Q: What sequence folds into this?
């Protein structure tokens, strides 16, 4: 079984400040991990993903995330927030092994990021 | 190229009505997923197709929910005798194979009155 916990349903930062969105996961098998962004009335867009290899993953729009197995975490960061980063962010986990549920994504509840001038 | 499209974008139904939600995946994508996103929640998995085969329907909340993909392309999610708790955004995603990135459509917002 897999689960994802996003700490903080709302995060507010000033433009230019560090963005840190927290994600912890639980998985019985080595996971694949994802961050998605959702703008109002739009579908989910993939920001970045961890599958294997380097634990620091860089994504689009200056975001990055680090997979820490010992902490079962995959926190999302961006050094300097921009007004256009305001959106809802979802962390997700997927099993990396086979089986009928292989492709199924399990999402966290989301974190709404507000960026103020 | 065209992304995943869903129709209608918005649907209002009276309780007890049947609804059908359509998903047009990216051409050539083998895998297709349906998710349900309730207000203020993350998406939750409903069902998965590989071509026309429905390989996982473990997330369908009740037997009122039915999905099909008869020719391995367009998929329809049908909800019979809708109830207020069915109100949500229904997201469709497709991918070239089950191991690849899933591309999401804009969703259909269903409101049951």
A:
């Amino acid at each position: 079984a897999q689960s994802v916990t996003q700490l903080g349903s709302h995060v507010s930062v000033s433009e230019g400040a560090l963005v840190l969105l927290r994600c912890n996961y639980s998985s019985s098998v080595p996971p694949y991990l994802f961050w998605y962004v959702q703008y109002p009335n739009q579908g989910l867009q993939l920001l970045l993903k961890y599958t294997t290899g380097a634990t620091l993953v860089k994504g689009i729009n200056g975001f990055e995330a680090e997979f820490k197995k010992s902490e079962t975490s995959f926190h999302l960061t961006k050094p300097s927030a921009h007004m256009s980063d305001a959106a809802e962010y979802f962390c997700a986990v997927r099993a990396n092994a086979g089986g009928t549920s292989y492709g199924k994504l399990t999402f966290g509840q989301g974190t709404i990021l507000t960026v103020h001038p | 190229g065209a992304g995943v499209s869903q129709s209608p974008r918005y649907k209002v139904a009276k309780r007890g009505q049947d609804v059908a939600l359509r998903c047009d995946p990216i051409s050539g994508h083998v895998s297709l997923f349906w998710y349900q996103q309730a207000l203020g929640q993350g998406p939750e998995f409903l069902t998965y197709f590989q071509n026309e085969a429905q390989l996982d329907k473990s997330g369908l909340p009740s037997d009122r929910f039915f999905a099909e993909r008869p020719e391995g392309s367009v998929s329809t999610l049908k909800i019979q005798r809708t109830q207020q708790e069915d109100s949500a955004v229904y997201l469709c995603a497709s991918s070239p194979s089950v191991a690849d990135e899933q591309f999401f459509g804009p969703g259909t917002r269903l409101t049951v009155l």
About this structure: Chain B has a mean pLDDT of 95. Chain B has no helices and eleven strands.
